[in-house]
Amino acid sequence: MIDGVCLYKLKQIPDERGSVLHMLRNDDVAFTHFGEVYFSEIFPGSIKAWKYHHNQTQNLAVPVGRIRFVIFDGRESSSTCGDIDIIELGRPDAYSRLTIPPGLWYGFSCISEEAGLLVNCSDLTHDPNESETKELNDCSIPYKW
């Protein structure tokens, strides 16, 4: 894994009426503080890339559908500089929380036949001056969607 990226298996409590899905608690070892929670819907075959945060940590889970995340480490001082992680999340077998620290480029695509729903519990509120974006096939990131 890229330095600083973490994957935490999440608890699912099944019930014949529907499951309870855990995501993040304030007593979790990975919790720092609360910024905001939002949901991002992504349609089958769609791609949302590339995003970079200077200060914000992302805590991502996929309660609906299946989403492939691609993370690129362009940090020159990192031991994993130049590495790419590809991680698929979704229920029932890959329900986990993906933590992406600041300083990494990431994007995601819906690989299920149904729309995917991503939930992000970030440690900072949204600030458009705190993030950057790149075009989908920017040549500075060695990954082709």
Q: Spatial order of the strands in the main sheet?
A: 1-9-6-11-4
Radius of gyration: 15 Å
Number of helices: 0
Alpha-carbon distance between the two ends: 20 Å
Helix and strand composition category: mainly beta
Number of strands: 12
Tell me the helix content: under 10%
- Which H/E pattern describes the elements? EEEEEEEEEEEE
Sheet with most strands? 5 strands, antiparallel
Morphology? globular
Report the sheet-strand fraction.
35-45%
**Low-pLDDT residue intervals, each spanning 5 or more residues:** none
Mean pLDDT: 97
Overview of this structure, please?
The protein is globular and about 50 Å long. The strands form three sheets. Strands 1-9-6-11-4 form a five-stranded antiparallel beta sheet, with no helix packed on it. The chain has a five-stranded antiparallel beta sheet with strand order 8-7-10-5-12, with no helix packed on it. It has 145 residues and is mainly beta. A hairpin with a 6-residue loop joins strand 2 and strand 3. It contains no helices and twelve strands.
